[in-house]
Amino acid sequence: MAFHAGVDVSAYPGDKVMKFLKQNTNLVWSGFYLGPAPSHKGTDWMTTRNTLVTMGWGLAPLYVGQQTVGPGSKHPDKAHGIADGADTVKLMKKSGFPPGSCVYLDLENGLPFPAKERDYVVAWVDNVEKGGFKAGVYCSHRLADKVRAAAPSARVWTFKVATTKKHPFPGHHYPQKDPGSVSPHAVVLQHEQNCVIDVSAAPGGHLTVDLDSAVSADPGAP
């Protein structure tokens, strides 16, 4: 099976940079941040879908919801899962994703997986799917089994990285790794974080990104 290289950048890099990456690298899909969300207030991706699809990008929408660690809003419980699920549906429609598209809930923590967070995930998945979209969950490889057990209908995007420190990643050809090598449930894998890549169209000629690989060239497709 062929796997497909992707890129994940919290702030929209701009049309020129995205065009450069599409034309000069093997990257075929990108994360797409919905906002404003509880733990991601930016809205700079929200009007870019048509432009990116026209360039040929596959897209993986992300909703950065309630967290248990790090910055952001920290109210992971059933009530917020219901509310955030409805909010996700609204943002997916606003940004132009068609019904059935998959959107991923961003969880930044590793173990443990508290009961309230589990309830939050289950409620979010249920309400996204009631709203006509496919649900996915982005989570640590340590949580993948528990997320799958709690929400078996959700696609799993897992992360496992060797370092979170900023580091250079040379060249324009990026790894196409098997997500199943980290978790049998995963269809997407983030395998690098805070990589500094060469992008002549970017300010200073470099861009800091996370690198991913997926079983699909369009992980948000129905």
Question: What's this, in brief?
Answer:
The protein has 222 residues and is an alpha/beta fold. The chain contains five helices and nine strands; from the N terminus they run E-H-E-H-E-H-E-H-E-H-E-E-E-E.
What Rg do the Cα atoms give? Answer: 16 Å
Q: Write the CATH homologous superfamily.
A: Glycosidases
Helix count, DSSP H or I runs of 4 or more residues: 5
CATH architecture: Alpha-Beta Barrel
Helix content: 25-40%
Q: Tell me the fraction of residues in β-strands, as a range.
A: 25-35%
User: How many extended strands?
Assistant: 9
Could you name the CATH topology? TIM Barrel
Low-pLDDT runs of 5+ residues are none
For the termini, the CA-CA separation is 20 Å
Largest sheet: 8 strands, mixed, barrel
Widest sheet: strand ordering:
1-2-3-4-5-6-8-9
Strand and helix order: EHEHEHEHEHEEEE
Q: Class by helix and strand content?
A: alpha/beta
Supply the CATH class: Alpha Beta
What sort of overall outline do the alpha carbons produce when their principal axes are compared? globular
Number of domains: 1
Mean pLDDT: 97
